[in-house]
Structure formats: C-alpha cells, structure tokens
Amino acid sequence: MKCMETSELHCRPCNKSPFCFDLQRFAGDKTEEPTSKKRSDAKKKGQVGRSTELSTAFVLLIGFVIIQALWEHIYTSIATYTTYILSHPNQPVDTENIIRIFIGIIELLAQTALPIMLAIMIVGLAVNLFQVGLNFNTEAISFKPDKLNPINGFGRMFSKRSLVELIKSLLKILIIGYFLYRFLSRQLLAMPQFIYFDLATSLGQMSKIVFNMAFQVIGVIFLLGLMDYGYQKWQTTQDLKMTKQEVKDEMKQTEGDPQIKGKIRQKQRQMAMSRMMQEVPKADVIVTNPTHFAVALQYSKGMPAPRVAAKGQDLVARRIKDIAREAHVPIVENRPLARALYASTEVGDLVPAELYQAVAEVLAYVYRLKHRRRA
Fold first, then answer.
1. How does DSSP assign 230-250, residue by residue?
2. Under DSSP, is residue 333 helix (H, G, I), strand (E, B) or coil?
3. Does the domain formed by 261-373 have CATH 3.40.1690.10?
4. Other beta carbons less than 10 A from residue 308's beta carbon
5. CA-CA distances (angstroms) from residue 350 to 275, 278, 305?
6. Per the UniProt record, which residue ranges are transmembrane (predicted)?
C-alpha cells in the first residue's frame, strides 16, 4: 500500500509511514492574497491599515511649528489682556463686566488658539485621507449586540491583537521616556539660573527648552508612526487573506459559474449555427475543397460584392453540403478558392477584392448551369 498518490495529490490514511500526510488538511488555510474586491469590501467597512501614531506625529508637529511661529504674538496677546484685567481690580461684578470679560476671552482665544486648531484639524484630515482615502461609512459606529457580550469582550481583551497593541504601547512609553530622560537630564542643571532672569527672559528660555524637547519627541513618534503604518498595512493584508475556496467562490460571484458560462456559450454557438444553416438554402453556390471546407456564397442585384452566407470545416462543412443538396443549391469544387474564402472571411462578410475574379467565374458557371436546366 502506497502512502502517497501522486496522481491525486493527496495521501491516503496511513499509520505505518512517518511521512504520510494529507494535503486536504491545508485546504482551509488562508494562504491567498486578498483580491481587489475583498480589499474594496473591507475598505467600505472601515477595515484599512492606518497608524494613529503617524497622525499624532503630524498633528503635534504642525501644532508646535505654528505655536513657535506665533509665540511672540501669543505671548503679547495673553500678557496684554492679563495686564488689563489685573489693572482694574475695583470693577464691580455685574452682568455688563462679566459679559465684557467673557467676550474678551473669546477674542483672545480666536487670536491665539483658533489658527492652531484650524491647522491641526486640516493636517489631521489630510493625514487620514492619505492613509485611508476618501471613505465615509457608519459601520464602525453602528450598534452591534455582540459587543455587549462579556465573553466576546474578554476574547478581544486577551486576543493576539490586544497583546501586540499592549507590547507596542509599552515600547512607545519606554522609547519616548528614554529620550525625555536624556533631554531633561541635560537641561535640569541650567534651569535654576532662571530665577535670576526677568519674567520675559525666563519664559523665552523655557519656551526654547520646551520646543526643543517637543520636536525631539515628535521625531521619535514620527519614526514609530512610520514603522507602525507599515505594520498596520501588513496586518490588514494578513487579516484579509483568503482560502483557495473563498477565491473560487468570489470568482463565481463576480464572473459567474464557469460551468454555467460554458453552457451559455455552447447554447450561443448552437443558435449561431442554427441561424447560419438557415441561410444555406438561400445561397447561390457552395464552394468546397471538397471534403474539409465548405463556403456558401450569396449574391443579389444591388450588392457591392457576394456575401458569405455560411462556412464550415469537416462536420460543419458536411452538414452545409447536405442542406445544400436538399435545397438544390449548386456545389462547386474549387480547392484554392474554398481555402482562401474560409481563411479570409467570416459569416456575413463580403468577398475580398482579391478573390473577385475567382468568385465571379464560379458564379458565372452556376448561372450558366441554371440557364441550361431551365432551357
């Protein structure tokens, strides 16, 4: 008894040989790359590879760049308004003063925070558009009863994906913490000197330290975001991988069952053959070679050239000749012409110009033959 059947590409059950295995066990493995339809359906459901760290890095970067660029304006606006409020401590606490202070705060926020907020919003949308594309759906926020199941919740909490996300978060904390420690350990020695500076100078020095620290941390987050973006793309592809059977089923859904399509094509060929055979009795002559090819020619007054009413090879040629005999259509043997017509024309085509002379001779012969019979 053989353990492996090479002709069937699988192994019969066998307990004697250690090399006996069954390839059918791997039939359900998701080894095939996701098709474009699978990716498109997943994208509609919001299942796409995107990195929140990359979005965070860009948002922080543009936010701190604008704050640094507008720092003087922001500092001056806040200082001016604060000085104004503190220089009028004896104002009565009434509705008019409260409204005026509230309006002043709104104006201050519009001058200082609004440009930063708008830039962050635009950059956040642009980064997400780059990662995901223009894709709006409510699948992710729709109510799903299975999410209320505590068993499913524990399954998600202790799943492989949750473990990977936990490890990623710990690594991010450790890496960012290490860079912060290195930066602050070098700056802490210089900070006590700020007590000898005035407020403006101290704030200026502190802002430089904060901005340098922020840009270093953003650089680290940006590198982590790029790596996470690549990982998320890879993980999404792994999640969307398909089994061979799923690929076959999808092809059947999109392109149709091959067996059904084959039957449709067969039916179409039969209908076309039936229509072609109906044209044979209307032909003026059948040109043969005489066994392998048969071409039916039809010509009537007003036509620019004779038309190929039917053509066939071997069995189809024999059927054309049988119908022609039953309909008393003349059959003329001309091997070169039959081969040339079969090779250069399709059913319904006019005879090519280079064959006019040969076809005219055949038709002239047929017309003379018909005239003699009538006489």
1. HHHHHHHHHHH-B-HHHHHHH
2. strand
3. yes
4. 23
5. 18, 18, 6
6. 54-71, 98-127, 166-184, 209-231
Determine contact, residues 307/344, Cβ cutoff 8 Å: no
- DSSP one-letter code for 94: S
Whether pLDDT at 4 is above 50: no
Helices (H), 241-314: 244-255, 258-279
Per-residue pLDDT tens digits for 181-217: 888 888 777 777 777 777 777 777 888 888 888 888 8
Q: Helix or strand or coil: residue 95?
A: helix
Strand boundaries in 290-364, DSSP class E: 293-298, 307-313, 331-333
Sheet of 331-333: strand order equals 307-313, 293-298, 285-288, 331-333
Are 252 and 84 in contact, with CB atoms under 8 Å apart?
no
Q: Which residues contact 165 (CB under 8 A, 6 or more apart)?
A: none
DSSP annotation of 34 reads P
Q: What is the CA radius of gyration of the chain?
A: 42
Whole-angstrom distance, CA of residue 215 vs CA of residue 225: 15
3-state secondary structure labels for all residues of 159-179: CHHHHHHHHHHHHHHHHHHHH
Which residues, including other chains, have CB under 8 Å from residue 319's CB and lie 6 or more apart? 277, 312
Place of tokens 């859904």: 253
β-pairing verdict for 307-313 and 10-11 = unpaired
Amino acid at 184: L
Distance CA 367, CA 372 (A): 9
Q: What is the pLDDT of residues 217-234, one digit of tens each?
A: 888 888 988 888 888 888
Tens digits of per-residue pLDDT, 103-157?
A: 888 988 888 888 889 988 998 888 888 877 666 666 555 666 666 666 666 566 6
Say what percent of the chain tops pLDDT 90.
Answer: 2
Q: Are 20 and 4 in contact (CB under 8 A)?
A: yes
Strand ranges inside the chain, DSSP E = 4-5, 10-11, 285-288, 293-298, 307-313, 331-333
Q: Which residue has the tokens 């299942």?
A: 47
